[in-house]
Amino acid sequence: MNLTRRAALAALSVTTLALTAACGSGASSSGGGADISVGLALSTLNNPYFVELKQGAEEAAAELGVKLTVVDAQNDATNQVNQVQTFTTQGVKAIIINPVDSKQAGPAAKAAENASIPLIAVDRTVDDGKVASEVTSDNVQGGSLAAIELGRATSGGVVHLQGIPGASATRDRGFGFEQGLNSGAIKVVASQPADFDRAKGLDVTTNLLQSNPDLKGVFADNDEMALGAIKALGDRAGKDVHVVGFDGTPDGIKAVEDGTMAATIAQQPKVLGRQAVEQAVKAAKGETVQQVVSVEVKVVTKKNVAEFKK
Amino acid sequence: MAELLRAEGITKRFTGALALDGVDFAVNSGEVHVLLGENGAGKSTLVKVLAGVYRPDSGSVRVADGVNLAVIYQELTLVPELSVAENLFLGRPPRRFGVVDRARMLRDAVGLLARVGLRVDPATPVKELGIAQQQMVEIARALDLNAGVLVLDEPTAVLTDTETDRLLEIMAEIRDQGVGLVFITHHLDEIRRIADRVTVLRDGRSVGVLPAGSSVEQMIELMVGRAISEQYPRRSQEPGDVLLKVDSLTRDGRFTDVSFEVRAGEVVGIAGLVGAGRTEVVRAAFGVDHYDSGHVEVAGRRLPGGDVRAAMRAGLGLVPEDRKGQGLVLTSSVGENLGLVTLRSATRAGIVDRKRQRRHADEMATALRVKTSGLDQEVRELSGGNQQKVVIGKWLLADPRVLVLDEPTRGVDVGAKVEIYELINRMTAAGRAVLLVSSDLPEVIGMSDRIVVMAHGRVAGELPARGTTQDEVMALAVQEFSA
Amino acid sequence: MTTATARTGVDARKILSENGALGGLVVLVVALSILAPTFLSTQNLINVGVQAAVVAVLAFGSTFVIVSGGIDLSVGSVAALSAMVGAWSSAEAGLPGPVALLLGLATGVAAGLINGAMVSFGRLPAFIATLAMLSIARGLTLVVSQGTPLATPDVVTFLGSNLVPQVPLPLLIMLVFFGITGFVLSRTYAGRSMYAIGGNEEAARLSGIDVRRQKLVIYALSGLFAAVAGMLLAGRLASAGPQAAVGYELDAIAAVVIGGASLSGGVGRAFGTLVGALVLAVLRNGLNQLQVSPFWQQVVIGVVIALAVLLDTLRRRSR
Ligand SMILES: Nc1ncnc2c1ncn2[C@@H]1O[C@H](COP(=O)(O)OP(=O)(O)OP(=O)(O)O)[C@@H](O)[C@H]1O
Ligand SMILES: [Mg+2]
After folding, report:
1. Does the pLDDT of residue A17 top 70, yes or no?
2. Same domain, yes or no, for A19 and A117?
3. What is B3-224's CATH number?
4. Which residues line ligand 1 (CB under 6 A)?
5. C23-318: which CATH architecture?
6. Domain identity same for A186 and A218
7. Of A122, B4, B362, C295, which has fewest CB within 10 angstroms of its CB?
8. What is the CATH number of the domain that holds A250?
9. Predicted local confidence at residue A18, as pLDDT
10. Are residues A9 and A57 in the same domain?
11. Helix or strand or coil: residue B452?
12. Which pLDDT score is estimated for C317?
């Protein structure tokens, strides 16, 4: 089964590559960096969050007048290594990697290092390899903030909807969430995976409601699952059950505005993308780069939601 | 004469059928022991019990020390994608330093094939061989096992006379070397020629053991429980209009300039050796394969080449020679298979009239005396001869204007053959026509009105059936053409 | 009275012996009722039905394909694309909801027809043709959506909600499609030719079945069913997501095979597929209720799939 899946993903990524190429992604040249081209290897585009990250990167590239090539690994780490290797042979001056998994990005980093092309990690770190700059927002901190916010909204039993088991975002956010729990009156009564998927978030929450009818809150590792949970809760969402998501996607922000979602932890994917390109261009020009760029995560609640609407 | 194998009180029950009921059976060294019985009598089941494929519900099989058993099953067991040589040595290829020794395999294969008189390149994939040639490969493989007991389940059903002669010679040879042979056939003349004794099965019971030299009448009587007055009950009549016209049909490398006509009310036989191109011609005429030049007309309307459905609409039907590969849907039931050709005509607005389909299937199963536990039985569970009846039955139900029968009575017992012949008579009496391709010369001569003889992909000549001898047909069939 | 009871007893045993997977489902339900006190409530059973609906409808479509000896790997992607086209047509193009719904369904049929054409006229192996479509349809979903979820029109959202309290439409739609599938398979020309083509394509052709045209029909049906499943999925969420239904083709195939169909063709039934889809849904529901660790859940699902098919194989062999 896994083999099939892999074959499928490989075929998928070929098409996606073709599409990306077909639609064009970089900016036309204007200004000083005309001959600089930068590669951006994304983990996936199957998620609005990364689409925004890509937009931020594209905007920055257009402003700086560099050529940006974007590829999508379809969440397959092996695939991503291949894509980074391809970049090294295409004469890009800097590579931005958004690792599928921090722990599996080593070979990709190695490929860039061998070709003496500076590597910038965005959104997720590269655990084992040399990077010129890391542009991330702190997932662990975000998890803790979520726990604190949920504790502020409610008290009693809550469930934790986890992302894909073993994925780095699942690990980090879950870890932060557990840590943040110490400070509140909430207690986790169930932790179940819903694979970052909205439909699964709906089903899993429905099922957990059966065994935990007097649930008080839900924390989901991303907004998609949180929105599924809200669907499952129906009228109860925002009234006697409070849901906290993560990512601050447009749909998530809208749910906060509507009052069905108590809060979401907004990363700023556009800022991440923009900063990454800025660092990449610096590195390409041989200027000094900032080793760690920490982009703030923000707690979005009904009070400040207006700031986040686009 | 030492006894090599003894089975006692063998009983085997399948859901819905008692296939064997307390059968005793023994094989001695240096004898050919024939198993005779109607389709579905239990012969193949007994073979599979002897070989250990089936565990009997009761009874025992004892084999003398050091004696091994080789079996040629009724259904071919070759791997179509592999070459002749690879099939011959399947599971036991000659090795050298642990790797398959291809050169030696091909060399040994040539010798084995020569022994059975099969002239093909051992590197040919088996799927490219005709069914008779495949059978010879099976035989060659079994011979090479040098078994003490060799079981042959209807090997001659798909063979022509020459090949059958060769096989019977080989059988006599190894019998004289002390091998015990079990031989199943529906051709009673073969029994006369080779059998040392005959065990007759009927409805799963052993109803008698006959000595060598028993008369054909005796065997039939014991086997079907009644005498058969006429083996080929052909009733000819005045031919009508031309229904099928094959004109200068040519497919490069396969057949050349083949022309013949079949008229309403006629049975035209096509005789010839294996490889003469008979099956190729009728397949092309029916639109299964393409042809390069010439044309085919049904009742004056010209058929587009390579279009089975157009041929069917014009009123042509074809019962293919390979029942397992081309005739039957083995995963479906007897009823489904019988209704396959009439599926379209039984459909209104996309919905099949299942009641009507079942009624017709039921009538046909009864008419052909298909031995089955019911229309819902999977067709793969039927005995070989009964499967063959199903293939014929589905076409008879469609009642085509011209029905081409390619080796229709292969594996069918003597009694059931007569029933099929009667159905052919009924068709021609109703103004239909039949084209009968058969390697069974007495059948072609006995059931046809005219015989077209083919050799090397050409029509070698045409003979009236009445009064023609087998020798006359053979004389044409072996004719050489100057290229 | 006594005779009546006796007869139902016999019937139940007959049904069980003819459907190995049903036995598996019963075992699963009994085990979960004992282990999880909340499992056997009416509400939860309704939930299971709703959760089975999407995969069941996909799997019904796949049953046609698998019975005819093919495979359709594209159903998950086609479901997502159809729902996305529907959502886009109303949310972005401003078309009326019902029109958008029809456009979405037409998208599924079109994708299926292309699959069918690649298989029958292009002579591509079904595995490859539909693998290509898996990729194409998912890619197009991304193109149409620009990577973000779109709100579904009201008709679609209605499909995913309750008809009246306690009576969810997805459950009803699943049952309706179960009926349609059973009818198509057993009563129609298309259905009967699926068995013939899957059992022996050459014999089907020589019996006058237009194999190539039937394959178009078969894959188009699969595409249509995928589109319906996509609408159900999107309707339940009131939103069509670019990442919806990823990997669902494998669930659909698993459901069909658990239901007793053979991947080599010629064998398979609507009822079996329904049971197969329910087995998967019951299992996922139960795992949540028992709060099995995420790492173990996939192991358990794999083991149950293998056991369910094994049970069926053993039953067949014992005959
Ligand atoms: N696997 C099976 N399942 C159910 N019934 C079976 C099975 N195999 C054989 N039978 C039945 O057992 C009976 C004997 O079949 P068998 O194949 O032994 O006949 P046979 O004597 O070899 O006939 P033929 O001359 O047609 O080859 C038949 O009625 C057949 O339908
Ligand atoms: Mg037999």
Report:
1. no
2. yes
3. 3.40.50.300
4. B 14, 17, 19, 37, 39-45, 74, 371, 381-386, 411, 413
5. Orthogonal Bundle (1.10)
6. yes
7. C295
8. 3.40.50.2300
9. 46
10. yes
11. strand
12. 65
Closest of B109, B69, B54 to residue B86, by C-alpha:
B109
A31 — pLDDT class (breaks 50, 70, 90): very low
* B242-477 homologous superfamily: P-loop containing nucleotide triphosphate hydrolases (3.40.50.300)
Which are the contacts of B151, defined by CB distance < 8 A and separation ≥ 6? Answer: B47, B50, B51, B69, B70, B71, B72, B181, B182
Q: Residue ranges of the domains in chain B?
A: 3-224, 242-477
Q: What tokens does A273 get?
A: 């993308």
Element (H, E) at B61: strand B58-63
Stated pTM of the model? 0.86
Q: Indicate if the pLDDT at residue C15 is higher than 90.
A: no
Eight-class DSSP state of B127: G
The CA angle A283-A286-A290, to the nearest 5 degrees, is 45
Q: Which residues in C lie closer than 8 A to residue A47 (C-beta atoms)? A: 147, 242-243
Nearest by CB to A5, which of C50, C236, C247? C247
Within A219-286, residue ranges assigned H as helices are 223-233, 250-258, 269-284
Which of A177-181, B44-48, B129-133, C30-34 is least confident?
B129-133
State the nearest Cα–Cα gap between A173 and chain C, in angstroms: 16
Question: Does residue A272 sit in the same domain as residue A242?
Answer: no
Whether C300 and C282 have beta carbons less than 8 Å apart is answered as: no
Residue A229: strand, helix, or coil: helix
pLDDT digits (tens, 9 = 90+) for B166-209: 999 999 999 999 999 999 999 998 999 999 999 999 999 999 99
- What tokens appear for B354 in the block? 């299942």
Find chain C residues with C-beta within 8 A of B331's C-beta.
Answer: 195, 198-200, 262, 265-267
Residue A222 belongs to what domain range? 139-267+302-308
Closest Cα partner for B236 from B213, B265, B211?
A: B265
Whether A303 contacts chain C with CB within 8 A: no
Say if C232 is an interface residue toward chain A (CB within 8 Å): no
Task: Please indicate whether the domains covering B3-224 and B242-477 agree at the CATH topology level.
Answer: yes
pLDDT confidence of B482, banded at 50, 70, 90? low
Number of domains making up chain A: 2
Give the residue whose CA is nearest to atom 6 of ligand 1: B381
pLDDT digits (tens, 9 = 90+) for A201-240: 999 999 999 989 999 999 999 999 999 999 999 999 999 9
Q: What is the DSSP string of chain C?
A: -HHHHHHHHHHHHHHHHH-HHHHHHHHHHHHHHHH-TTTTSHHHHHHHHHHHHHHHHHHHHHHHHHHTT---TTHHHHHHHHHHHHHHHHHTS---HHHHHHHHHHHHHHHHHHHHHHHHTS---HHHHHHHHHHHHHHHHHHHHTTS-EEPPHHHHHHTSEEETTEEHHHHHHHHHHHHHHHHHHHBHHHHHHHHHHH-HHHHHHTT--HHHHHHHHHHHHHHHHHHHHHHHHHHHTEE-TTTTTTHHHHHHHHHHHTT--TTSS---HHHHHHHHHHHHHHHHHHHHTT--HHHHHHHHHHHHHHHHHHHHHHHHT-
ipTM: 0.88
Return the minimum-mean-pLDDT range out of B80-89, B246-255, C21-30, C44-53: C21-30
Q: Do A4 and C73 touch (CB under 8 A)?
A: yes
On whether both A236 and A278 belong to a single domain, the answer is no
Report how far residue C102's alpha carbon sits from residue C105's, in angstroms, rounded to the nearest whole number. 5
Hey, are the CB atoms on B340 and C196 less than 8 Å from each other?
yes
Q: Hey, which of B382, B387, B412 would you mutate to test ligand 1's pocket, going by the most ligand atoms within 8 Å of its Cβ?
A: B382
- Whether the CA torsion C130, C133, C135, C138 is positive or negative: it is negative
